[in-house]
Amino acid sequence: MSARRFAHLARLLGLGADPAVTTDAGDLWWRTDLSQLHGADATGPVPLGPTGNAPVIRSGAWHGFPAYGANTAANVPDGRLFAIPFWPGRSATVTGIAANVTLALVGGNIRFGLYANAGAVPGSLVADWGTVATGVTGIRSVTGLSVAVRPVLHWLVVARQGGLLNLGLSSRASWDPLTAEATPTIGADLNAYYRDGVTGALPASYGAVAGSIQGPSLSVQLT
Q: Which of 95, 145, 154, 200 is the most exposed place for a label (fewest CB within 10 A)?
Protein backbone atom coordinates (compact mmCIF):
# COMPACT_ATOMS: atom_id res chain seq x y z
CA MET A 1 0.00 0.00 0.00
CA SER A 2 1.42 3.37 -0.97
CA ALA A 3 2.52 6.03 1.52
CA ARG A 4 -0.04 8.38 -0.02
CA ARG A 5 -2.82 6.31 1.57
CA PHE A 6 -1.69 7.50 5.03
CA ALA A 7 -0.62 11.02 4.12
CA HIS A 8 -3.21 12.60 6.45
CA LEU A 9 -3.22 10.02 9.26
CA ALA A 10 -2.94 11.51 12.74
CA ARG A 11 -2.03 9.22 15.63
CA LEU A 12 -2.90 10.24 19.20
CA LEU A 13 -0.83 9.44 22.26
CA GLY A 14 -2.23 6.63 24.37
CA LEU A 15 -2.09 7.72 28.00
CA GLY A 16 -3.14 5.97 31.20
CA ALA A 17 -4.08 9.31 32.79
CA ASP A 18 -4.80 12.86 31.73
CA PRO A 19 -1.64 14.96 31.21
CA ALA A 20 -0.36 16.29 34.51
CA VAL A 21 0.42 19.71 33.10
CA THR A 22 -2.18 22.36 32.25
CA THR A 23 -3.56 21.62 28.80
CA ASP A 24 -4.44 24.03 26.03
CA ALA A 25 -7.59 24.20 23.95
CA GLY A 26 -7.38 21.81 21.02
CA ASP A 27 -5.28 19.07 22.66
CA LEU A 28 -6.46 15.47 22.09
CA TRP A 29 -5.36 12.16 23.61
CA TRP A 30 -6.61 8.62 24.13
CA ARG A 31 -7.19 7.36 27.70
CA THR A 32 -6.11 3.73 27.45
CA ASP A 33 -7.46 2.85 30.91
CA LEU A 34 -10.95 4.24 30.22
CA SER A 35 -11.17 3.56 26.45
CA GLN A 36 -12.15 7.19 25.99
CA LEU A 37 -11.07 9.96 23.67
CA HIS A 38 -10.28 13.08 25.72
CA GLY A 39 -9.79 16.65 24.66
CA ALA A 40 -9.15 19.96 26.35
CA ASP A 41 -10.79 23.32 26.44
CA ALA A 42 -9.35 26.35 28.18
CA THR A 43 -10.19 24.94 31.62
CA GLY A 44 -8.82 21.42 31.28
CA PRO A 45 -9.58 17.85 30.09
CA VAL A 46 -13.04 16.70 28.99
CA PRO A 47 -14.19 13.29 27.65
CA LEU A 48 -15.38 13.29 24.03
CA GLY A 49 -17.65 11.10 22.00
CA PRO A 50 -20.75 9.00 22.82
CA THR A 51 -21.50 8.65 26.52
CA GLY A 52 -24.18 5.95 26.30
CA ASN A 53 -26.91 5.47 28.88
CA ALA A 54 -24.46 5.42 31.82
CA PRO A 55 -22.41 8.52 30.98
CA VAL A 56 -20.87 8.86 34.45
CA ILE A 57 -19.80 5.84 36.48
CA ARG A 58 -19.41 5.99 40.24
CA SER A 59 -16.95 3.21 40.96
CA GLY A 60 -18.30 0.53 43.30
CA ALA A 61 -21.88 1.87 43.20
CA TRP A 62 -25.03 0.44 41.60
CA HIS A 63 -26.44 1.92 38.38
CA GLY A 64 -30.03 1.38 37.23
CA PHE A 65 -31.25 0.43 33.74
CA PRO A 66 -33.47 1.86 32.38
CA ALA A 67 -32.22 5.00 34.09
CA TYR A 68 -35.48 6.95 33.88
CA GLY A 69 -39.28 6.57 33.97
CA ALA A 70 -41.93 6.15 36.65
CA ASN A 71 -41.64 3.13 38.94
CA THR A 72 -43.95 0.30 37.98
CA ALA A 73 -43.86 -3.51 37.75
CA ALA A 74 -43.49 -5.99 34.90
CA ASN A 75 -45.05 -9.43 34.70
CA VAL A 76 -42.41 -11.98 33.74
CA PRO A 77 -43.57 -15.09 31.82
CA ASP A 78 -41.61 -18.33 32.20
CA GLY A 79 -38.79 -18.63 29.67
CA ARG A 80 -38.92 -15.02 28.48
CA LEU A 81 -35.45 -13.51 28.07
CA PHE A 82 -35.51 -9.70 28.33
CA ALA A 83 -32.58 -7.75 26.84
CA ILE A 84 -31.99 -4.24 28.24
CA PRO A 85 -29.58 -1.74 26.62
CA PHE A 86 -26.40 -1.08 28.59
CA TRP A 87 -23.85 1.40 27.24
CA PRO A 88 -21.25 2.52 29.80
CA GLY A 89 -19.54 5.85 29.22
CA ARG A 90 -16.09 4.37 29.87
CA SER A 91 -14.37 1.04 30.33
CA ALA A 92 -15.54 -0.61 33.55
CA THR A 93 -15.96 -3.95 35.30
CA VAL A 94 -19.35 -5.44 36.13
CA THR A 95 -19.13 -6.79 39.68
CA GLY A 96 -22.81 -7.36 40.49
CA ILE A 97 -26.33 -7.42 39.06
CA ALA A 98 -29.72 -7.27 40.79
CA ALA A 99 -33.48 -7.16 40.20
CA ASN A 100 -36.31 -6.35 42.61
CA VAL A 101 -39.02 -8.98 43.09
CA THR A 102 -42.41 -7.33 43.63
CA LEU A 103 -44.52 -10.49 43.37
CA ALA A 104 -42.75 -13.58 44.71
CA LEU A 105 -42.84 -16.90 42.86
CA VAL A 106 -42.10 -20.02 44.89
CA GLY A 107 -40.19 -22.61 42.87
CA GLY A 108 -38.98 -20.08 40.31
CA ASN A 109 -35.65 -18.45 39.53
CA ILE A 110 -34.35 -15.50 37.56
CA ARG A 111 -31.22 -15.89 35.46
CA PHE A 112 -28.92 -12.95 34.65
CA GLY A 113 -26.42 -12.48 31.84
CA LEU A 114 -24.76 -10.19 29.33
CA TYR A 115 -24.71 -10.18 25.51
CA ALA A 116 -22.57 -8.27 23.06
CA ASN A 117 -24.17 -5.98 20.52
CA ALA A 118 -24.62 -7.07 16.90
CA GLY A 119 -26.30 -4.60 14.57
CA ALA A 120 -28.18 -2.79 17.39
CA VAL A 121 -29.68 -6.03 18.78
CA PRO A 122 -28.25 -8.62 21.21
CA GLY A 123 -25.64 -10.85 19.60
CA SER A 124 -23.20 -13.32 21.16
CA LEU A 125 -23.16 -14.33 24.82
CA VAL A 126 -20.56 -12.60 26.97
CA ALA A 127 -21.47 -14.03 30.38
CA ASP A 128 -24.10 -16.26 32.01
CA TRP A 129 -24.29 -15.20 35.66
CA GLY A 130 -26.56 -17.99 36.83
CA THR A 131 -29.79 -17.92 38.82
CA VAL A 132 -31.24 -16.69 42.10
CA ALA A 133 -34.52 -17.85 43.67
CA THR A 134 -37.64 -15.66 43.53
CA GLY A 135 -39.49 -17.13 46.52
CA VAL A 136 -39.37 -13.87 48.51
CA THR A 137 -39.90 -10.23 47.57
CA GLY A 138 -37.12 -7.66 47.54
CA ILE A 139 -33.71 -7.36 45.92
CA ARG A 140 -32.30 -10.56 44.43
CA SER A 141 -28.70 -10.24 43.31
CA VAL A 142 -25.58 -11.98 42.04
CA THR A 143 -22.34 -10.42 43.28
CA GLY A 144 -18.62 -11.19 43.12
CA LEU A 145 -18.59 -10.89 39.33
CA SER A 146 -15.66 -9.62 37.27
CA VAL A 147 -16.58 -8.95 33.63
CA ALA A 148 -14.80 -6.15 31.78
CA VAL A 149 -16.92 -3.98 29.47
CA ARG A 150 -15.88 -1.29 27.01
CA PRO A 151 -17.78 1.95 26.27
CA VAL A 152 -19.94 0.37 23.57
CA LEU A 153 -23.49 -0.96 23.49
CA HIS A 154 -24.11 -4.20 25.41
CA TRP A 155 -27.33 -5.97 26.44
CA LEU A 156 -28.11 -6.98 30.02
CA VAL A 157 -30.51 -9.92 30.14
CA VAL A 158 -32.83 -11.45 32.71
CA ALA A 159 -35.15 -14.43 32.36
CA ARG A 160 -37.62 -16.17 34.60
CA GLN A 161 -37.10 -19.92 34.76
CA GLY A 162 -39.62 -22.20 36.47
CA GLY A 163 -42.55 -21.71 38.82
CA LEU A 164 -46.27 -22.09 38.10
CA LEU A 165 -47.90 -18.74 38.91
CA ASN A 166 -46.99 -15.08 38.30
CA LEU A 167 -43.67 -13.33 38.92
CA GLY A 168 -43.43 -9.56 39.19
CA LEU A 169 -40.23 -7.52 38.89
CA SER A 170 -39.75 -3.77 39.30
CA SER A 171 -39.75 -1.82 36.04
CA ARG A 172 -39.71 1.75 34.78
CA ALA A 173 -42.34 3.15 32.44
CA SER A 174 -40.05 4.54 29.76
CA TRP A 175 -39.23 4.30 26.08
CA ASP A 176 -35.56 3.59 25.40
CA PRO A 177 -34.40 4.92 22.01
CA LEU A 178 -31.95 2.02 21.70
CA THR A 179 -34.86 -0.40 21.20
CA ALA A 180 -36.96 -0.34 18.04
CA GLU A 181 -39.97 -1.97 16.37
CA ALA A 182 -40.45 -3.29 12.85
CA THR A 183 -43.65 -1.20 12.53
CA PRO A 184 -44.73 2.10 14.15
CA THR A 185 -45.75 1.65 17.78
CA ILE A 186 -46.67 4.87 19.55
CA GLY A 187 -48.00 5.19 23.07
CA ALA A 188 -46.35 2.10 24.54
CA ASP A 189 -43.39 1.96 26.90
CA LEU A 190 -40.74 -0.04 25.06
CA ASN A 191 -37.46 -0.33 26.92
CA ALA A 192 -36.29 -3.89 26.17
CA TYR A 193 -36.17 -6.60 23.52
CA TYR A 194 -37.39 -10.09 24.31
CA ARG A 195 -37.46 -13.66 23.07
CA ASP A 196 -39.14 -16.73 24.57
CA GLY A 197 -38.26 -20.34 25.28
CA VAL A 198 -35.07 -19.86 27.33
CA THR A 199 -35.44 -22.44 30.11
CA GLY A 200 -31.85 -23.33 31.00
CA ALA A 201 -28.36 -21.94 30.39
CA LEU A 202 -28.28 -18.86 28.20
CA PRO A 203 -27.82 -19.60 24.48
CA ALA A 204 -24.49 -18.76 22.82
CA SER A 205 -26.34 -16.35 20.56
CA TYR A 206 -29.40 -14.37 21.59
CA GLY A 207 -31.17 -15.22 18.35
CA ALA A 208 -33.99 -13.34 16.67
CA VAL A 209 -35.82 -10.85 18.87
CA ALA A 210 -39.58 -11.33 19.11
CA GLY A 211 -40.20 -7.61 19.62
CA SER A 212 -39.94 -4.72 22.05
CA ILE A 213 -41.71 -4.54 25.40
CA GLN A 214 -41.65 -2.89 28.81
CA GLY A 215 -39.15 -5.11 30.54
CA PRO A 216 -37.88 -5.37 34.13
CA SER A 217 -35.39 -2.92 35.60
CA LEU A 218 -31.91 -4.10 36.52
CA SER A 219 -29.28 -2.60 38.79
CA VAL A 220 -25.62 -3.17 37.94
CA GLN A 221 -22.59 -2.65 40.16
CA LEU A 222 -19.69 -1.11 38.22
CA THR A 223 -16.08 -0.43 39.15
A: 200
For 72-82, write each residue's pLDDT tens digit: 999 999 999 99
Compute the chain's Rg from CA coordinates: 20
Q: How far apart are CA 172 and CA 174, in angstroms?
A: 6
- Rounded to whole angstroms, how far apart are CA atoms 37 and 52? 14
Number of neighbouring beta carbons within 10 Å of residue 89: 19
Sign of CA dihedral 59, 65, 68, 69: negative
pTM for this entry: 0.90
Q: Is the Cβ–Cβ distance between 54 and 68 less than 8 Å?
A: no
* Domain extents in the chain: 6-48, 62-222
Phi and psi at residue 174, in whole multiples of 5°? -150, 160
Provide the greatest CA pair distance for the chain.
68
Choosing among 2.30.29, 2.40.160, 3.40.50, 2.60.120, the CATH entry for 62-222 is 2.60.120
